[in-house]
Design brief:
The chain is mainly alpha-helical. The chain has six helices and no strands. The relative contact order is 0.13.
Length: 154
């Protein structure tokens, strides 16, 4: 979570290693600047933060209360992902996609009571999300247009 804009992102990855965490950090930060990453004491997160020259104030091991802000956001993402999977009826193997959907939906739909805009708008210089807003697991079909019907192979 970007504490300035409240923009959330998730990078579900079964490989908990420094290179994958470093790529996730770099993707999240993008062209913006960052100076700190708040996390638990996981070695791969600490190593990735060091290699990107980011401060990494950590909480105490096995004490969620020492890193409360991070835990609140992680809990929300996990609960939102579970809700996406349950509502869609899809299997657990869709967890990574359900989590990506939840973070995007939270960014584009939640309006701040303070700033009266969304995290997406704060992160993207006030522009609104222009994509489709579909529930996770929605079955989408497209109707063939006359141009695509004639171009089908026999």
């Amino acid at each position: 979570v970007d504490h300035f804009t409240s923009y959330r992102e998730s990078y579900p990855d079964k490989n908990r290693n420094t290179p994958s965490v470093k790529l996730a950090f770099a993707d999240f930060i993008g062209d913006d600047s960052a100076f700190a990453v708040f996390s638990d004491v996981a070695g791969e997160i600490r190593s990735a933060a060091e290699s990107l020259e980011l401060l990494n104030p950590t909480g105490a091991p096995h004490r969620a209360t020492s890193r409360g802000i991070v835990e609140v956001h992680v809990k929300a993402a996990v609960e939102g992902t579970r809700t996406n999977l349950h509502a869609s009826g899809l299997e657990h193997r869709f967890w990574p996609r359900a989590m990506k959907h939840w973070t995007t939906a939270a960014n584009i739909n939640r309006i701040s009571n303070i700033t009266h805009d969304t995290a997406w708008q704060r992160r993207n210089d006030g522009s609104t999300f222009k994509g489709l807003r579909l529930p996770f697991g929605a079955k989408c079909a497209r109707q063939k247009t006359p141009a695509s019907v004639g171009s089908q192979r026999p």
